[in-house]
Endoribonuclease YbeY (Rhizobium gallicum bv. gallicum R602sp), 171 residues
Amino acid sequence: MAEIDFQVSIEEGDWPSENELQALAERVLKAAAEVLEKDERQRFPKTATELSLVFTDDEAMRAINAEWRKKDKATNVLSFPAFPIAPGEMPGPMLGDIIIARETVEREARELEKSFEEHLSHLMVHGFLHLFGYDHMNNDEAEIMEGLETRILAVLGLSDPYEGQDLKMEP
């Protein structure tokens, strides 16, 4: 299995410790990488890849979302691939950045009646797949991406986050 090196940083917000986030990310991203390596659609690098996980608050996320997506509101997770890539293409050694907002994750977890850790795990997987070019802008893309998310979360012993929902998520 290819190695994933990642940097965890807490910029803002009341997050668990960096050590706790690092341990969770290692478990989640390892499962995600294993599923992607076995998927016939995806090419996965045999050498180490890198990414950063940035944990912040809604205020900072709102500013990032406004600057980069022209949406003046907080969102749960944003991914910034280091290089443009389509699903199935070989990624470079640097995958990119995943940014996650604390208050939104916490609120959504309550609304979904899931634990904070379970929802955070889902968002890590979701952001990771975006770095590999997966998206959910139309139903065909959403079906593929959400199918992968569901498979990865099942490996982690977590429930299907899309059960009973329409496919396409908010862009």
Remarks:
- The helical segments are 18-38, 58-69, 102-112, 116-131, 139-155.
- The domain at 4-155 is CATH 3.40.390.30 (Collagenase (Catalytic Domain)).
- Residues 79 and 159 are 23 Å apart (CA to CA).
- The first strand starts at residue 4 and ends at 10.
